[in-house]
Prior knowledge:
The structure is a single chain. By secondary structure, the protein is mostly helical. It is 74% helix and 0% strand. It has helices spanning 20-40, 50-73, 80-84, 91-119, 123-132, 137-170, 173-186, 192-213, 217-240. The chain starts with 19 loop residues before the first helix and ends in an 8-residue tail after the last helix.
Amino acid sequence: MAAPSPLAQHSQRPNLLAPLWHTIILILFVLATAYFQSRNHIENHKITQRVVLYAFMICFEWILFAYVWFLGVRPTGRRLSEVIGGRWVSARDVWRDMGAALVFWLIVAAFLLLAGLALGPSSEMNKVVQVIMPRSPIEMVVRVLLSISAGFCEEFVFRGYLQTQFLAFTGSDAAAIAAQALIFGVAHLYQGVKGLLIVTVYGALFGILAVVRKNLRLGMIQHPLQDSSAGIGVSLAAKHLPKPLSFF
Length: 248
């Protein structure tokens, strides 16, 4: 008898990690923030202090995490390790996840490349990238810190919390992955509609990874590696390759 797909519908829905009102407030906050950012058009601002911008973004990531953890999950009596999916018990586990993260990195890069080619060039994404990419060594260091914060906080909030909540609502992994990925994509609406679609694919891939691996550890390793390498890689490319340069 064939083993069931990890995305197959569950016969029994898991318990909610937090009350329904808590999830609704989080979704409304993410949507409102996305709308404000899309209307504000960061690419039209002349930003010279990217370290300050990165620091603000780091604070925003941890505010989301704090809301989910301190006001939602923790009051229900759950532990952080329960949401993340346990802990490493040996060095072998660490190295195995590191190797798997590198393989997944290649898979994500391939999917994002295909999505970018299918959707075509995006002037909005290019403008945003040009504005926020690091240009100095100190900016690169803070950008890496931002990537680490995003890797932990976004995986916890979207793949750990929201995906579990949607799974409890629907009883379907596929529906839960799609819902959290869409909200994750909308949170990046400031990158334009094409950027939203690409980030939605990105979020779906991490959602699938969380289901297959049954934890967030691999995503929390790969996510910051992906973001850091992309940010620094784009900066180096812009510095050493001919201009004008288009990244998407």
